[in-house]
Amino acid sequence: MFSIELPELIEQALCTRRPQTIENGLNIYLESAVLVPLLKEGSDYKVLLTKRTAKVHAHKGQISFPGGAVDPTDSSFEHTALREAQEEIGLLSDHVTLLGRLDDMLTMASNFIIHPVVGFIPYPYEFRLHSFEVQKLILAPLQVFLRSSGQNNLESVEFEGRVYSSLAYHYNGHVIWGATARILENLARILDEKIDLPGGAG
To answer: Which domains does the chain have, with CATH numbers?
Structure first.
């Protein structure tokens, strides 16, 4: 499909741009980081997502990426993302090839700045889900988001008694919205601008 493998192309695309950051000088927001795990299943590249349980404090039942709040002992946002991925889905940090960062995002239903870190992971993999936090894993083809990139996918999404106007994707009965959807759109737009992919928006 490519003369160079996709992870290398993504790494090249991310290293040639500066991520948009959100200033938090007054500490209005809580800092967090997520891992955006990409993998190859057969000949298809996919994104690994998690469905959160109803037990967690925030974002109950939502589709998200492995991640969480920055700990004072974390040396970087990459460290946070890898630590949380190991805690939530049993993904060892030395099994992740980091490719770069995406733009910072604000959550809609809470008060977090998210720093997304893209990584390539091996597959198949013996994931071990944290039963309190993660209900199940979802492997969504990357092309689902590339085909939708640049289109108007705004929807009204109800969550915990409030209605949000949000970018939303639908895959296999799941609604992917909020910051997760915006992170995926950010990745898709970067790939569309930097890499000539079949199914892209350009």
So the answer is: 6-141 (3.90.79.10)
The single residue listed with the structure tokens 């737009």 is 189
Per the CB < 8 A criterion, the answer to whether 161 and 154 are in contact is no
- Other Cβ atoms less than 10 A from the Cβ of 122: the count is 12
Q: What distance lies between CA 162 and its chain's CA centroid?
A: 23
| Structural contact between residues 36 and 10, judged by C-beta atoms closer than 8 angstroms | no
CA distance 130 to 29: 26
pLDDT tens string 70-101: 999 999 999 999 999 999 999 999 999 999 99
Q: What is the mean pLDDT of residues 123-134?
A: 97
Q: Are strands 67-69 and 97-101 parallel, antiparallel or unpaired?
A: unpaired
Q: Quote the DSSP letter at residue 200.
A: -
Q: Are 29 and 112 in contact (CB under 8 A)?
A: yes
The mean per-residue pLDDT over the stretch 160-174 comes to 86
| Neighbour-count burial for 72-92, b at 16+ CB within 10 Å, e otherwise | eebeebbbbbbbbbbebbebe
What single-letter amino acid sits at 34?
V
